[in-house]
Amino acid sequence: MDWFKPKRERKLRQQVRAAAAGAKRTKQTEFKWEQQWGLYEKVLSRKSYSSKEVIDSLRVIRDLNPDASMAIWNLQRLVNSGFEVEAQRPDGTVDDAMTEQLEALAKRVGLLYGGGMDQLVGVWTMAGYTSGGFAAEVELTENLDDVVDIHVVEATTIDFLRNKENKIEMVQKQSDGSLKVLNPETVFYYPLDPDVGDPYGRSPLLPILQIVFFQVQVLKDLQRVIHHQGYERFDISIVEEAIMNALPDEIKHDGEEVQKFVQQFVGSVEKQFSELEPDADFIHTDSVKVTTAGGAGSKSMDATRVIEVINQQIVSALKMLPILLGRNEGTTETHGTVQWQIFVAGVKSIQRTIKRLMERSFNVYLQIQGFQGRAKVTFNDIPVRNAMLEAQAEQLRTSTIITQVQQGWIDNNEAANEIVGHDAVGTPTNPVLNQFRPPTSATRMMGKNRADDEVEEGAEAFIGETEEPWAEQVAEITDQAEDAFGRFLEYQRKEYIARMKAAGTPLSSDEEAIEVFRDWVESNILYDSSEQLALWNELGQDWMTLAAVTAGEVSALTFDADVVFNSQDEVLLRALSDRSRRSAEFIQDATDERVIMSLWDVVAEGKYSIDKAAKALQEDEGFSKARARVIARTEMLGAARTGQNDSDRQSGLVIGKIWRSAKQDRTRPGHQKANDQVVAFDEPFRVENGKGQVEELMFPGDSSMGASASNVIQCRCWYKRILQGEEHLLRGGE
Length: 734
Hints:
Elements: H1 5-24, H2 32-37, E1 42-43, H3 52-64, H4 66-79, E2 83-88, H5 96-108, H6 117-131, E3 133-140, E4 147-153, E5 158-162, E6 168-173, E7 179-181, E8 187-191, H7 207-230, E9 232-238, H8 240-246, H9 255-274, E10 288-294, H10 303-317, H11 333-368, E11 374-379, H12 387-406, H13 412-419, H14 440-446, H15 459-464, H16 471-503, H17 514-524, H18 529-557, H19 570-605, H20 610-619, H21 625-651, E12 654-660, H22 669-673, E13 678-680, E14 685-688, E15 694-697, H23 709-712, E16 718-723, H24 727-730
Helix pairs in contact: 3-4, 4-6, 7-10, 12-13, 16-18, 16-20, 16-21, 17-19, 18-19, 18-21, 19-20, 19-21
């Protein structure tokens, strides 16, 4: 069997060669284009829908289609949010001198587009979003000692091939058809969302092709439908009997002659009607009958639904938010925020790609200058969330950390590092009261609280009568809120007096009717009532939240079980927000009415003067410390009840409640009558107001169910809890 030995050796050598050839390559898997061609010096093919012809079509749509044009417009403004560049040394520190040179370079490049790197960012955004690829070339001087310019390169002109050394190279077809290998040290290309094995990237605009073609066809069809059915058209018919009567006798039996006669007759009628002017009157014989057809009375399919579907598809194809394309689609605030965050993430991904192009371009300049380091480009942030919501979120986060300190879970230094990034600089004397401050806008108008301000006696005694465990803390908060509200009322008084003086005298002769005078006051003095209401809401909500959280935390501690009060509970925050809004509306409405009636009293007395009117406002009780005291006591006590009630709800231990009237001579008759009223915890009390009308309140001082002012102002009633295991009390037992 020696003849078989050479054959086995040849097969073995083939296996060894194949294994050795495979071992030379570090990459074992292959892309489709490698499997397809398997040859050197072969350009990697583009997908059919990313060819130059398709991208050229996208450019036309991008520039002519209103929605696509708007999408590009918005995207360019968001991506081009401004940037900063700095030259960093290898150790990460910034070289100021070289940074200045980079900033100077950024101002002189992009000459074709008017100059400036910001112009290049806009062109890169538009070109890359259209073609799916971002490319740039750094042009150097002949001596290779400076940068002449930085150019945006059209991505569709760049191809990729694998050379004889099995490396991917960028090439560009020249005018003679040859391929020129581009220098990777000065020409850069980054694909957008590339597919597996596809170095060219994908255009986000591609889906618009299908929907735009469909939209154009639908609009053409709709145009024809409108022309045929949207307007009334003349329906002209020729009476056959009239034609027969008009036929000459000599041709009636000659078919060809009859046909010629009828054609001439009809042609003559068509010619006469086609030559009529739009405003001409019809004059015709009884051989022609004229009616109308179509118009508003005709019925056809509803094109609105079709257009809506097309609009939705366009929004999706352009990866754009509906509101940015002028589509006012309804959505919740939460969903809108999430959509905006997702959209901004897409914008930032484009910024990161352009950032890499910019940094590599700047790095070329640094290299030829002999600088050992790199360029760092930073785009300005795009706001992701509403500033007010961010501030509120930060305030709640601070509140949570303060609670953790109070509960002994973390120390003051840990809290300070979490919030401000360094150890605490001092020990807070009262962490709870330091938790909130009057809002910035209100603080500017009212001035800051002074540590040595004298606190007027009264709140502690007033709230102390409630015998609640949180009474002392809330009384202290009430005194501070009273000062803040008093300063705000004083600000309003001065503002209204100044406006009144600027408005002049409202009367020219006899007394004016009260309604006319009211209009004059509202137009000249109270014209920003909604803004004043917003300021009251802003100021009041901070103090209400402080009182509610204080009462809620203390109430939670009174349970025998381990109950932790959540100051960020959604139900609580919504209740406080609603209460603040309702209170602000009531307070500002009352202020507006007092201004009108106070000035009307001056008018009614006769001899109206600006000095008399100013004195009337200066003396009006609507801006007095007494009113500030009433507002503070009402709102702080009501807010504390809100926090206490929510603390009971969060505990899950309270199943009912018993109304307890304040034991004092001033207690309202309706509240005295409600004493000992028993209801389930999630049901309201039914209490008579000042007019004897029954109103519903979830707890004393509650206005969430529409209780009037006579039922809540300075109310010091309270409720007794009915806990689990005390079901007999719900049934009226002892």
